[in-house]
Design goal:
Its EC number is 3.5.-.-. Its cofactor is Mn(2+). It comes from Falsiroseomonas selenitidurans. It contains 13 helices and 19 strands. The chain is of the alpha+beta class and about 425 residues long. Helix 1 (about 5-25) runs antiparallel to helix 2 and helix 11 (about 345-360) crosses helix 13 (about 405-420). The relative contact order is 0.16.
Amino acid sequence: MNPVDAEAAALALAAGYLDAIRAGSLDDPGVTRASYGEGERLAHRLAREAAESLGLEVAVDPIGTLSMTLPGEDRALPAGIIGSHADSVPHGGNFDGAAGVAMGLAVAARLRHLDRRLARDLTVLAIRAEEMVWFPANYLGSRAAFGLLPPAAPDTLRRSDSGRTLAEHMAEEGFDPDFIRQGRASLHPARIAWFLEPHIEQGPLLVEAGVPAGIVTGIRGSLRHRNCRAIGQDAHAGGAPRRHRRDAVIAASRLVAGLDAFWTAEEAAGTDLVCTIGEFFTDPTRHAPTRVPGEVRFTLDIRSAEPAALLRAEAWLAGAAASALARQRVEIDYGPALHVPPAAMDAGLRAALAAAAAEAGIPTLQIASGGGHDCVTFAGQGVPSAMLFIRNEGGSHNPDEAMAMADFAAAFRIAAGAVERFG
């Protein structure tokens, strides 16, 4: 097959895969592919069927990781891996994660149609359970494949919609939770030469810049507190003067305003930082318009590609809590902290992506990833890792995701050229 026809066939396969998984997981107003559930099962089955139609070697590990391999010239060499996850958030968009699986299949299809082999095996990976909304664990599927989950995880993690354990859902899908309990691994860093995760951008920067693809410089780490409380004392709205009040709303509001000022100063100094208060509420069964609120609950999500910035944010939060106690006599209890370190992308792989883009005449943007991805797990295991973002209208984790196939095609040309450069 000539190169033009090979590319067209590869892109048609990817588009057909994305259309089919959307049709099979529609859940108005978007799609739902729950981790270890029906929609994810469908996406893996259709990926396997596409791989088998190309004659790829297909394997599934005991936790459901789907590997689809195009043999290389020297099978003793560590393999190159391209792929992403296939689950989604509830009523989400069709492309978050799945576009990376489709991209991997398209790259392998092009090589197959050109009857071309790389020096090493090329494995397309469909990873399980990346979306934390289903089970409260970051990068559950990729960490499980590397043997990084706690042995108790199958029996302590419960799915948000069913309340049933990870072990129960795995067994229902035909997989083996003992694989995790025993600390076993199916992915081994020494056997992986590189990892590339194509993914839609989850923000607006590529749309603003008017370019179809972005080369990710690094993945932001995070400092998260999901159960924050400002604890003061209830009082009568008319009878309690200011000096006697321990108003949790005012104290928490000062903290939020202070965090915004901290963020502004860090940003002005050139720091990569984003801060989010995703929830902020009083208990409506306890509080009323005529009552000074004695408690506020809220969440914190602070992200940066710079470890030092996360440390500064943590120190600022401690100071803000001390100030609230001294000024309003309100205790700030942040609850447990979830720390995720930043992940730097491999300079050599980034250079290969840039060279492939230049050769194809496709403009790109160097961009940090604000969202977390399975690529963090690979990079954390010492695997040279890279991400390629695809322009996406409408944001992510919502039914308005709108990746144009023309942009997917542009990113495909970059990925295909880079994979051959990776070796």
